Amino acid sequence: MPDLPTVVLLHSAYGLRPAVHAAADRLRAAGHDVLVPDLYDGRTADAVEDGMAIKDEIGRDELLRRAVAAAAPAADRGLVYAGLSLGGAIAQNLALADERARGLLLLHGTSDVADGAEADGLPVQLHVADPDPFEPHDWLTAWYLRMRRAGADVEVHRYPGAGHLYTDADLPDHDKEAAEATWRTALGFLADLPAR
Questions:
Q1: DSSP for 129-174?
Q2: Angstrom distances, CA of residue 26 to CA of 91, 100, 180, 182
Q3: Which pLDDT does position 186 carry in this prediction?
Q4: How high is the pLDDT of residue 145?
Q5: pLDDT value, residue 1
Q6: Among residues 46, 75, 39, which one has the least CA distance to residue 60?
Q7: Residue 111 contacts by C-beta under 8 Å, 6 or more apart in sequence?
Q8: Are 84 and 108 within 8 A, CB to CB?
Q9: Cα 121 from chain centre
Q10: CA atoms within 13 A on the CB side of 166
Q11: Nearest to 90 by CA among 56, 108, 67, 62
């Protein structure tokens, strides 16, 4: 059996909703250990505006601190950081700061790439709606170029006509066909990751 990486899966601005647990269950069924931190301490939102208000109340630095603390007990294993939308942005920050990271799986979200960031061959896979109001084409082009310049091995998968959080079956954005295609591709990516 291959050495499957442990995945840290970070939730979106909606909080730790059933869709995040369903995603974790998919990963576990494929043989991965999965950590699913609750960065909002039990709070969830039904509307994106409410979720963004919770995010702003907690603050970016505190969300990053909580994510790092949740990942720390397993960090020596060489983690894959994964996230949904806001969670993807946080996952990207953690992966770029962890020289032992085995991979980065982004669903619906990215973050800015700092000048001088180093990814040194880090495998990265992004799944995103096309178009996506939160991840416009110009932004994604600049993000891709910065990640490549940092040394990341980046794949981008676009899903025309899907809504932003199309993997969440409880949201209007849900697109079953795009979600299934995303998970097939993502599980293959994770299964093929080399040891670091």
A1: EES-TTS-HHHHHHHHHHHHHTT-EEEEEEEET--TTTT-TTSTT-
A2: 18, 24, 11, 12
A3: 98
A4: 97
A5: 45
A6: 39
A7: 88, 89, 90, 92, 93
A8: yes
A9: 18
A10: 26
A11: 67
Residue 73 tokens, joined: 């007990």
| Structure confidence at residue 134 (pLDDT) | 95
Q: Is residue 2 part of a domain?
A: no
Listed as ranges, residues in the chain with pLDDT below 50 are 1
Rounded Cα gap, residues 63 and 66, in angstroms: 5
Contact 155, 124 (CB under 8 A): yes
- Please indicate, yes or no, if residue 120 is contained in any of the structural domains: yes
Q: Would you say 53 and 23 are in contact if contact means Cβ atoms under 8 Å apart? A: no
Please indicate, yes or no, whether the overall pTM of this predicted structure exceeds 0.85: yes
Comparing CA positions, the residue from 22, 92, 95, 84 lying closest to residue 51 is 84
Q: What is the CATH number of the domain that holds 113?
A: 3.40.50.1820
Domain that holds residue 24: 7-191
Q: Which two tokens stand for residue 120?
A: 């040194």
CA atoms of 188 and 24, how far apart (whole Å): 15
- Are the C-beta atoms of 175 and 158 separated by less than 8 Å? no
In this prediction, residue 65 carries a pLDDT of 97
- The answer to whether residue 113 is domain-embedded is yes
Place of tokens 């209007």: 172
Q: What does the pLDDT look like over 19-57, one tens digit per residue?
A: 999 999 999 999 999 999 999 999 999 999 999 999 999
